[in-house]
Amino acid sequence: MTDKPAFVYVIYIERTPEKVWHALTDADLTAEYWGHSNVSDWQVGSPWEHQRTDGSGTADVVGTVVESSPPTRLVTTWAAPDADAAAEPSRVTFDIQPHGDIVRLTVTHENLADEAERTAAAGGWAAALSNLKSLIETGSPLPQQPWLIPQ
């Protein structure tokens, strides 16, 4: 077990596990609520990229799919594209648990470099997941990008 910081975020969404899975793994949907397209075939061992939506194809985050169990669990590594290859990437786990007509989505981002990275992750995940919830419950993301609100 690592002693590096981790961040856990839980959100409840009025949708099925399949809809939440689709929102996490569909490049067009992630572009709507995250401002980046998550691009992969989501098979274990496959690469994934968090690509800008400006048409540049630039990936701001890259990783590998570690576990893919639709529609309940997705685990990926998470690193900057220019990260030192010898450095261990952080890891993000999406656990999707159904309960009646809702889903509890738990996102665990672990093996973060330090408390500053943990703080950044906390703000980023809260914004992205709030926008995801709004999009899949109402059909529209929030009217402003929540990650642009000053801390």
What's the short version?
The chain is an alpha+beta fold and 151 residues long. The protein has helices at 17-25, 27-34, 115-138, and strands at residues 7-13, 36-39, 47-52, 59-69, 73-78, 90-99, 102-110.
What does this structure look like?
It holds the Pfam family AHSA1. By secondary structure, the protein is an alpha+beta fold. The chain has a single domain (7-146), classed as Alpha-D-Glucose-1,6-Bisphosphate, Chain A, domain 4. It contains three helices and seven strands. The chain has helices at residues 17-25, 27-34, 115-138, and strands at 7-13, 36-39, 47-52, 59-69, 73-78, 90-99, 102-110. The longest helix has 24 residues, at 115-138. The N and C termini lie far apart (31 Å).
